[in-house]
């Protein structure tokens, strides 16, 4: 049993990064992982539009920005949680990477470039405090997660996410139609990207 590939209680775990890097799936995705990464997120803006957004008096620009944010946040949560992406983000394998791959795998720089949250006060009726608060909390959470022991990463990240859900409902609330955004912002970067989890594979994969 190698350190890169092993099976525990019939769960096949493979840390080997092989093939070509893909920004939405990492390394060696299954067909199901590719489908989730490349198509599932497109449901979010469609569902949100027909359930909520069409009832709000938004401009075409605001609808476009909201659609981008929904696609980015939902897509990011799904992509970063894939076994094929976890394999890449948290691998200890030495690889030749291009600048984009290096950015995606960096535990601090990748979250730091996520300025999308600032589109909210720029395009919608909400104070700039909203964006500065959530961006600051996200970065502080990322730093804290990587300072504590590995075995505490997941429960602490989940605690942060739960608190963000509560806070986003009572203070630093997003504009109508985007109330969910701050919570997904935290899930995408603190939980999905920041927490190392085993990259499971199909037993025949």
Any overview of this molecule?
- The chain has 205 residues and is mainly alpha-helical.
- The protein has one domain (5-201).
- 54% of the residues lie in helices and 5% in strands.
- The protein contains ten helices and three strands.
- The protein has helices at residues 31-38, 43-51, 60-81, 83-89, 99-105, 109-112, 119-123, 128-145, 153-170, 181-193, and strands spanning 5-8, 11-14, 200-201.
- A three-stranded antiparallel beta sheet has the order 1-2-3, covered by helices on one side.
- Helix 1 runs antiparallel to helix 3.
- It is globular.
- The mean pLDDT is 93.
Short description:
The chain is mostly helical.
SSE pattern, N- to C-terminal:
EEHHHHHHHHHHE
Tally of separate helices? 10
Helix share bin: 40-55%
Given helix and strand content, the structural type is mainly alpha
pLDDT averaged residue by residue: 93
